[in-house]
Amino acid sequence: MDVESIVFPHFEQYIRLSPELKHELANRIHLRTFEKGELVHNADTICVRSYFIRKGLLRTYFLKDDKEISEYFSSENQWVNSPRSFIKQKLDIYYIDALEKTEAFSLHVQDLVYLFDNFPEMERYARLSMGTNSGFMIERIFSLRFTTAKEKYEHFLETYQHIHHRIPLGMIASYLGISQETLSRIRAEK
Amino acid sequence: MDVESIVFPHFEQYIRLSPELKHELANRIHLRTFEKGELVHNADTICVRSYFIRKGLLRTYFLKDDKEISEYFSSENQWVNSPRSFIKQKLDIYYIDALEKTEAFSLHVQDLVYLFDNFPEMERYARLSMGTNSGFMIERIFSLRFTTAKEKYEHFLETYQHIHHRIPLGMIASYLGISQETLSRIRAEK
DNA sequence: GTAATTTTTTGATATAGGTCAAAATTTATG
DNA sequence: CATAAATTTTGACCTATATCAAAAAATTAC
């Protein structure tokens, strides 16, 4: 299985992986497949696994007035989980489902805790990669506060350069916090 | 100086502080005072210090069409810096100024790097405290996407429970991404 | 491959909140 | 304290985008 060729390079963007750590990672990460439409995580449960996507597309969403609101989308070479649920091991509002058939490497929270406890460089990895993530959130906050619906959509196209065409319009609209009618009109005018 | 009674308890919310680490922290953290209106960080420079506020109120803002837009406010027992500038050691858009006379403990980025390199528990501290922070950003993103101006203001009042009355209206409006006229009307109607 | 379902588009209308301008109030300064 | 400067409030008006409804198009299922 290609933990070595897919997951290791991701870590190595942030830290050096010792042979021991590689060994532990390889033993603890397991490939899993989700069919299109399958639920990867249910908000009824505490999130105990984090998935690193090898191929496919996942959506993190929540329910608001019985409607599905997309929180964000994740694709190849990204970790996905229900953040506050996974970190705090408590319930949270997010569901995750597969917009495409998806293959992902799965890491259990207990294994991650073991790795944090025994490999300080994993703490560093987490700190640094969270920094990358915070950067995205800062940008998103900016985009939500000060831009028109059209600019929000353009920002989305940039942020999701590689995958925007794989995501249905309605889901993009809820991600941006605009109505799908407005988004449809924005698209039409180009 | 009361690094011991102010800063240590903050760290101890997340990690145990060894005597050695306490010693290093105490040696590297220095108290500094800013007068009301004083610039704590200038966007023209790379941010090399992080400040832990002992007393006072700081504002992080940026310029947009020559207007000051408040990004967030920070008060007692919080770290403040220009996040992306401090972490990546490159220029970013944020200025920080003092809305009140402020006393803050200052930690240089080089000292922090030393601490990260020699005390793995500091990496853990950073990881965990960033998690807390991400939680706030997730909430803010929700609030910006799906709520009316009034609800945004109410969310602000919750988030800044202790300090909202110390922040001028115009700065709150730009923080929320609404016009100050609208905010003034919202306040009037209560 | 046709029917059923879901998603997207188009049209008409309503409204929250923006902008501009000026008055009122508060805060800062000599 | 008095005057200047900054901030907040109020009013009039306008526009971007929401909502509701229905048609069109695309996708899914039998």
Detailed description of the structure:
Two copies of one chain form a homodimer. In chain A, 48% of the residues lie in helices and 24% in strands. By secondary structure, chain A is an alpha+beta fold. Chain A folds into two domains: 3-132, Jelly Rolls (Sandwich); 147-190. The longest helix of chain A has 27 residues, at 120-146. The first copy, chain A, is globular. The first copy, chain A, binds a DNA duplex (30 and 30 nucleotides) through helix 8.
Which labels suit this protein?
four-stranded antiparallel β-sheet, DNA-binding, 190 residues, alpha+beta, globular, homodimer, Jelly Rolls
The strand order across the widest sheet of chain A is 1-8-3-6
What's the CATH H-level superfamily name of the largest domain in chain A? Jelly Rolls
- Quaternary state of the chains: homodimer
Runs of chain A with pLDDT <50, length 5+?
none
Largest interface, by Cβ-Cβ below 8 angstroms: which chains and how many residues each?
Answer: A-B, 26 and 26 residues
CATH class wording of the largest domain in chain A: Mainly Beta
Describe the sheet with the most strands of chain A: 4 strands, antiparallel
Radius of gyration of chain A: 18 Å
